[in-house]
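=== RUN LOG ===
request id: a7f3
mode: sequence -> structure
chains: 1
length: 278
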Amino acid sequence: MSDFYQIMLGPFVACILLTGIHAYLGLHVIERGVIFVDLALAQMAALGATLGYLFGAHLHSTGSFIISSSLALCGAALFSLTRLRKQIVPQEALIGIVYAVSAAAAIIVLSRAPEGGEELKTLLVGHLLFIDWNEILRMAVLYTIIGAIHWLCRKPLLQISLYPDEAFAQGRNVRFWDFVFYGTFAFVVTSSVEVAGVLLVFSFLVVPAVCGAFLCDGIRARLLAGWSVSLLASFLGIAASYYFDFPTGATVVCVFGVALLMCGMVRAVFGKASAIGA
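=== RESULT ===
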């Protein structure tokens, strides 16, 4: 048991941090209907990391983070500029295109780098099991800053996510606030993908928010439910990976899938969110 805590304490603390920020951002993503924006920004960050790697920057170095963040911010600017009151095409279509092009570009770049396949695998799965406490501290500082920004700007950000027509009608600078949202999102994704990989970060973002929507009404109740589901899934996934010798990130993703299924069954049996007491 002591070995379990010694090996898995760091990954679980990292999961707590990932849960705290991603479950909240996931609420915005679900309400905006841009489900794959996380994957798109993550893939742009990954493209930045591969470009940095090609020119000699280690995947987890400061230089790599700067390049990755810059590419992700370009994606944030693009998504904020393409947000229109009356969309010509669904924004999700543009997000999908950005994801596909970024993924293809990353593969091309890595084809020119030695051991490119191994580096691509690292970008997909991360290194959650081997995270060190310095990385955890950096994550905590970054996520605290991002959380503070969102708390201070919560009124316009929530209004634009929940009531976009009202925000446009009141004359809010929607594109500016969208850039604040997507820009801070980009920094979070750049940091979290390095640690947890693209697939696990997507699960932390979307699954808790969907579970919260199944179980509760109201932003606060959904957020609390999402945090609870995410923490429980993280602990069970990490424990299963330890005792059955499964890959940690993939195991946590699968447990998230089971958690989503169970929340869906609760919703089906008990009906609307009142089953949990919204």
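=== NOTES ===
The domain at 2-275 is CATH 1.10.3470.10 (ABC transporter involved in vitamin B12 uptake, BtuC).
The chain is about 80% helix and 0% strand.
=== END ===
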